[in-house]
Amino acid sequence: MTDKFDFIAIGSGTAAQVAVHRMAKAGKRCAVIDYRPYGGTCALRGCDPKKMLVSGEEVVAAFSRMRGHGIDGDIQINWRDLQEFKRSFTDPVPDKQQARYERAGVATFHGKARFVGSCSLAVDSDLLEADHILIATGAQPRTLDIEGETHLTHSDVFLELEKLPEHILFVGGGYIAAELAHLAARAGAKVTIVQRGRVLQAFDPDIVEWLLPSFERLGIEIVDGAVTGITKDAQSLRVHVGDQQLTVDMAVHSAGRVPALEALDLEAANIAAANGRLLLTPQLCSETNEHVYAAGDAAASGPPLTPVSSHDAKVVVENILEGSGREPNYMGVPSALFTVPPAARVGLLEKEACDAGLDFDVDAGAHSKWFSARRLNAEIYGHKMLIERDSGRVLGAHIVGPGADEVINIFALAVRHGLTADDLKSTMFAYPTGASDVGYMLG
Ligand SMILES: Cc1cc2nc3c(=O)[nH]c(=O)nc-3n(C[C@H](O)[C@H](O)[C@H](O)COP(=O)(O)OP(=O)(O)OC[C@H]3O[C@@H](n4cnc5c(N)ncnc54)[C@H](O)[C@@H]3O)c2cc1C
Ligand SMILES: NC(=O)c1ccc[n+]([C@@H]2O[C@H](COP(=O)([O-])OP(=O)(O)OC[C@H]3O[C@@H](n4cnc5c(N)ncnc54)[C@H](O)[C@@H]3O)[C@@H](O)[C@H]2O)c1
């Protein structure tokens, strides 16, 4: 027998949660499906568990900075206990979410969903049908097409490690590599990152340059090259980078993620996709199936970040409930890199602003002498601001150093709502805080 719903979400991450609860609140009969425990990447395998672990890293980093300045002794990360601290947050998530769905009257299914018709799905032996189906299946590590790829460990597994291997290598030098490398190195592992070209290509090159000494101080080795293969035998794991062979204990995939669509059997529902991406209208509806929408990492419409998944889901719900034709607005999506110290960005990179032909001033500099850095004995602190000449609007903001991950949100407000540098400079911020540097950063 087929179970009938108004709305079904495939996935239980941020996008699915936001959409399902909004649809249920609007009185719609809803269902949610996930083959993994409810909660999705952010809560169980991404942002939150990572940041629980980073809390331990921050303490050790602060201790090292202040040692000899009124702080004595020695401290270290106890990885096993830090993991337990992390699990105190992550372990209860799936049950809490299940209970919340039940309270909201949402039907819950555990299994892999695949389309069997234009608005119907199979989950194991269950057949489900809905007026609207949301693909919120997130992303997965992209296939690298290299020999021995199966020997790669994924970030999910890294974040669950009970014991850190001695030597960890990251394949790719983007977000995942930088954050997990810092964490592992601070916890005592030897770390290597292999990246083709510049590391952290999503960030401003000067900001990255100012951040790089933190990699060096932790002994993180950065190898410029592409990983071409991995071989494993009883004794060793060898990562091939051109002619070079690096012998390590674990190699982690950090070379980009792509929408997780394979299991869905899109053809069965006439859902068009090309090059691993769904073909969507600007309103996030499938171009070829009006019953199907997508949101978050699966939609790959905006940057693959948690606030984007949530935003997409709200847009989809509004379009389904009100037929409003709303399009997502990715103006001013901030992003923070949780290394210690952190780096953060919002708006345009300098190169993007140049390519767009914009007329703008740049205010940039490294400031280890500024009070915010001095009081923490921090050596890394810098900013780059792009201000449009005529309008005075903040086009882009890039920060590295203590507090960058929080202060960026002030610039996010400015970029998204078209505030000018003068608007920010004339705002009073509590002193002394990271935000009280905002005025200085704007020249
Ligand atoms: C290590 C790591 C750290 C990150 N850190 C940050 C951060 O600090 N800040 C930030 O903003 N972003 C971060 N991100 C990105 C962020 O986690 C994602 O952008 C966000 O979680 C995506 O949410 P989503 O709802 O689109 O998908 P997900 O949360 O990935 O949910 C998709 C769900 O769908 C399920 N699923 C897939 N296929 C099927 C199927 N066929 N049937 C049933 N279920 C299925 C999956 O099991 C999964 O639970 C991080 C990502 C990673 C990997
Ligand atoms: N703090 C955060 O917000 C956060 C943290 C982690 C992940 N994420 C999200 O998850 C996504 C995926 O993260 P990621 O770090 O896997 O991807 P990424 O896109 O940030 O970086 C991947 C890097 O790997 C390199 N690369 C690819 N193939 C390679 C090869 N064979 N050899 C060497 N280098 C190679 C690429 O040039 C690129 O620089 C990110 O785009 C980000 O949006 C966000």
From TrEMBL:
Its cofactor is FAD. Residues 6-312 form the FAD/NAD(P)-binding domain. FAD binds at K51, D297. It comes from Sphingomicrobium lutaoense. Disulfide bonds join C42-C47. PANTHER family: GLUTATHIONE REDUCTASE (NADPH), MERCURIC REDUCTASE. One of its GO terms (molecular function) is nucleotide binding. Keywords: FAD, Flavoprotein, NAD, Nucleotide-binding, Oxidoreductase. NAD(+) binds at G172, G173, G174, Y175, I176, A177, A178, E179, G256. This is Glutathione reductase (NADPH). It holds the Pfam family Pyr_redox_2. Its EC number is 1.8.1.7. Binds 1 FAD per subunit.
